[in-house]
Write a structure and sequence with these properties.
Lipocalin, globular, 237 residues, mainly beta, 2 helices, 11 strands, eight-stranded antiparallel beta barrel, single chain
């Protein structure tokens, strides 16, 4: 079943990419699941915050350093791969009361535009606008994305990585069960790496250059659950 779901997810991402415009100057990357994380945090009765993750993320993106507006992102998350460190709760979250993963197996984001953020002193922050589909509902969202860096990995493959934190209201995607006892606002932290595919375009720094476009200065982002409340969490629920 897991292999079938994984294959279905791959096909879905590939189909979306076929409809995504490609720019000849951009480099194409495949998301590396083993170096990518999707973490969420949510209020539990206002007593504490519960954190979890999705363990299966796939996608592709094209990135052009010279013209970020030409960049594109398509990412799909396996809804059934949710892990909140409690098997019984995870089964409940996969069910009809929440994600209904059998009917809606994928959470998909497909970008429509990329633009530099207004507050962008280092030139590595971008607003990535696109359509997020979750629980059968599609909404336009703007994701504040930071380019962390790019360069060769330990085995010589050229990589590019990004980081973002945002807040979503689950009720806007039709998941209203147990609101407000279980919080409506969900803090989301995503960090992902892509491995460059095929021929090199002119959109990235040359392999081995170690370029980070001002992002990889050694600072470590704080994941959700690092000791503070999730962004936007409703502690009064």
């Amino acid at each position: 079943m897991n292999r079938l779901r994984h294959a279905t997810l791959s096909v879905a991402v590939s189909c979306l990419l076929l409809s995504t415009p490609r720019e000849s100057r951009a480099d194409n990357f495949a998301v590396d699941n083993s170096h990518s994380s999707v973490i969420f945090g949510i209020s539990h009765f206002g007593y504490s915050y519960t954190y979890g993750r999705f363990s299966q993320i796939q996608g592709n993106f094209s990135w052009d350093n010279a013209n970020p507006a030409a960049s594109r992102f398509v990412v799909a998350i396996d809804a059934a791969s949710i892990d909140s460190n409690d098997a019984k709760r995870d089964d409940h979250l996969r069910g009809a009361d929440f994600f209904n993963a059998n009917q809606f197996p994928q959470i998909i984001f497909q970008s429509t535009s990329v633009r530099p953020a207004q507050q962008n002193p280092k030139g590595n922050m971008y607003d990535v606008i696109g359509n997020l589909t979750m629980h059968g509902v599609t909404k336009q969202v703007t994701l504040p994305m930071k380019k962390m860096g790019e360069g060769n990995g330990p085995y010589g493959k050229f990589r590019s990585g990004f980081f973002l934190q945002t807040t979503l209201k689950r009720s806007e995607f039709g998941m209203t069960n147990m609101v407000p006892k279980i919080g409506d606002q969900v803090a989301v932290t995503i960090s992902f790496e892509g491995i460059r595919q095929g021929a090199t375009g002119s959109g990235s720094a040359p392999a081995g250059s170690g370029s980070t476009t001002g992002a990889g200065s050694g600072s470590k982002p704080e994941p959700a659950g690092s000791g503070s409340a999730p962004q936007g969490s409703d502690s009064s629920s």
